[in-house]
Amino acid sequence: MEQFKLKFIGGAGTVTGSKILLQYDNKNILIDCGLFQGLKELRKLNWESLPIDAAKIDAVLLTHGHLDHCGYLPVLVKNGFKGKIYATSPTIALSQIILLDSGKIQEEDANRANSYGFTRHDKALPLYTQANALAVSAHFSSHQYDEWVHLFPEIKFAFHNAGHIVGSAIVEVKIKDKTILFSGDLGRKDPLLLYPAFKKIQPNYLVVESTYGDRIHAEVDVKSQLEQVIKKSIEKSATVLIPAFAVERTQEIIYLLYKLKQENRLGNIPIYLDSPMATKVSEVYHDHLELTDLTKEDRKNMFKDVHFVEDYKASEALVNDKRPKIVIAGSGMLEGGRMLNYLKNHLKNEETTLLFCGYQATGTRGRAILEGTHAVKIHGEYYDIKCNIESITNMSSHADQSEILNWMSNFTNTLETVFLNHGEPHQSQALRVAINTKFDIMPIVPFINESFKLKAD
Ligand SMILES: [Zn+2]
Q1: Fold for domain 222-395?
Q2: Ligand 1 centroid vs 194 CA: distance in angstroms?
């Protein structure tokens, strides 16, 4: 009997830092290579060395271009990784944008720490630089959905659509007689822009994410909610500010606004996207519209009414512009980005609406505003909040508990072992109980760095 090994070296007990090491026949394959984010204790893990030498990793299979799945690649390459990074073409394009931005932020953070002297070390160093991020590009190898790639003797894999963000994939790996399925991040049952996740598969082993393993998303008509908020604002000839994540959420909002305009439900209020990064990401969507579940007409027209604000001067002018408009800008949780300049000017205006369309993590400026704080500090100064705060809470790109169960019900007959990763402990445990109740399978919730030997034949 032959065996292979799975080791969970990130994304275990937490929703960031996704990394799973698959070892078989002296080959080391990493599924995702994500950055730990959020709390300091987690971020510190990015500075610890991996339990395996980067030079000994033979290949990386990348599920999608979010930072918590691809953000550690520059460190891997810096530390001597020589292999290929396999991904879909949009995942490669998104990763390049996101890694470069991440390198820039790391450099800026290190420079700031050094100039203020708030580092206990002699000199703060970035985890990686923009140059390190650029060096990742030479390793990418692009593959289509459902294309089988023969990696090594008796190891092959295919990416299939995950319905989470453009290009996102679940990975089906075949080792000898066994099939292992890695969900990466799994999309909703009916994603706004994308096709639902692939399900014609018969895995023996499943590693599935559990970000919303404890939750059922409410059924909400997001488009009508958006319409109501914006209409109220139009009546007051005011501005609507939408802080949004550059990937998927921005394009979803652009699509919903386009549909509302097409249905004559919005008038001609101008729409601005003031985020160089979201603009680049939107170009990736535009280049891969064949992967979206949209009509030909929608694909052609969804971006046509959007004014893309590139130049910083144009952005400054728009910040001071008093005319009614919709501005979409980053960052999604108001931790940085050009949206902060709008807030400095608009928080005091009772007419302006600040509309949240995404999750606001504890400790962020976005969360504080959403919870009703009366003032926020931006660039060292306090600003009173008098504007109207609204929120659409149901926009998520992750499957909830019932959607994960429904997806799994397509292949439970072949399953031998299920692992739940990419979740806080309470999220994974809730999903574990639900899977056990519905399918009579008791999933394993691995600890960080825990490894498992599994049969390959
Ligand atoms: Zn993701």
Answers
A1: Rossmann fold (3.40.50)
A2: 14
